[in-house]
Write a structure and sequence with these properties.
Strand order of the largest sheet: 1-4-5-6-7-8-9
Radius of gyration: 20 Å
Helix content: 40-55%
Number of strands: 9
Oligomer: single chain
Strand content: 5-15%
Number of helices: 15
Largest sheet: 7 strands, parallel
Low-confidence stretches: 1-13
Order of helices and strands: HHHHEEEHHEHHHEHHEHEHEHEH
Structural class: alpha/beta
Mean pLDDT: 94
Length: about 350
């Protein structure tokens, strides 16, 4: 399905994992596939674990985190396993306690609202997150080179927003107030977050993560001007710091159609696309010097199989066989999603063959 490219023995389609090859825009034998939030409440095995443990308990017990990571990847037959963790874990070593409240999501008890709050945050305890690294070691030992192992962290803007808002938000009023009214405090906060995340990602890579995904879940709340003025520089620093560890970076956000070119300018190897525009349009906005990941609407997983197949095939045709496409959703799998439909998508991607002439 891909254009024939002269290969050396070191660069055959069998050298290296197809997921990692796709991240680097190298030709692959077929499009790799994995899913955002592939270990989650839609899966009975995960619900069984959650009967006895909170989400944070699973994250902090490497045996459990590895178990749910491995179980989901094997049940779905995907090409990559993303470690089971939570975006907010780095808040704790920085001095911010949080909890997950039923129906409310995460709650940060003492939000960061002032320059003094920012000054009080610590950056010297990233090693406290070593439990995530131990879980990655177990997953990497289990899969060896059969699957790509994905570590992850939140992006600076998104983590800062959680810290400032104290949880989820619709309008990000407190976040944007700090951005606009006290740029030195805002920049100091991002600097501290980048310092902690760099060390956190180092732990993950040393433990066996092949790729790091940076989740900028809330960056779609920003205009392009505000992204460029208040978020871009910190994201770029983090992307480059992770790449300096020797692994590719996937940079993902939601509702980011207007930001894709700027996000690509961070230098991330792969840009995650949500489902709100066709994949080929998103890839054009990103630029073909980057790989892309996406971009099925996760709610399509509730559709009849014939419609699901139409949507999956449309995305694969839009990718056109160009090296550098990783099939995924445009956001995470939601609760109550039929597992058999997720498995069906994996089969559809595996069996797809491009009819027309592929891109050179």
């Amino acid at each position: 399905m891909h254009a024939s490219t002269p290969t050396t023995p070191q660069d055959s389609l069998l050298s290296g994992n197809r997921f990692i090859r796709a991240c680097l825009r190298k030709p692959v034998d077929r499009t790799p596939v994995w899913f955002l939030r592939q270990a989650g409440r839609y899966m009975q095995e995960y619900r069984d674990v959650r009967k006895h443990h909170t989400l944070v308990e699973i994250c902090k017990q490497p045996e459990l985190a590895a178990e749910v990571t491995i179980t989901a990847a094997e049940k779905l037959g995907v090409d990559a396993a993303i470690i089971f963790a939570d975006l907010l874990l780095p808040l704790e070593p920085m001095g911010l306690d949080f909890e997950f409240q039923a129906g409310e999501g995460p709650v940060v008890h003492h939000p960061v609202r002032t320059a003094a709050d920012v000054a009080a945050l610590r950056t010297d305890r990233a090693a406290d997150l070593a439990y995530v690294a131990r879980a990655i070691e177990k997953v990497a030992a289990h899969f060896r080179d059969r699957l790509g192992i994905i570590g992850f962290c939140g992006a600076p803007f998104t983590l800062a927003s959680y810290m400032i808002e104290g949880g989820g938000s619709r309008n990000y009023i407190f976040t944007k107030q700090l951005m606009y009214q006290d740029p030195p405090a805002w920049n100091a906060l991002l600097d501290k977050i980048v310092a902690v995340l760099t060390e956190y990602c180092r732990l993950q890579v040393q433990a066996g993560a092949d790729v790091i995904q940076i989740f900028d879940s809330w960056v779609g709340s920003l205009s392009l001007a505000d992204y460029n003025d208040y978020a871009f520089a910190a994201s770029k620093r983090l992307v480059r710091a992770v790449q300096d560890l020797g692994v590719p970076v996937i940079y993902f956000g939601v509702e980011t159609a207007g930001l894709l070119g700027a996000m690509a300018s961070t230098g991330a190897d792969v840009i995650g696309l949500d489902w709100r525009q066709p994949l080929d349009q998103g890839w054009s906005a990103v630029g073909h010097a980057h790989a892309v990941q996406g971009n099925l609407d996760p709610i399509t997983l509730f559709a009849p199989l014939d419609i699901l197949q139409q949507r999956v095939h449309a995305i694969l045709r839009a990718a056109g066989g160009r090296p550098g496409h990783i099939f995924n959703l445009g956001h995470g799998i939601v609760p109550n999603t039929p597992v058999e439909n997720v498995q069906a998508v994996v089969k559809m991607v595996r069996e797809f063959r491009l009819e027309e002439t592929p891109h050179a």
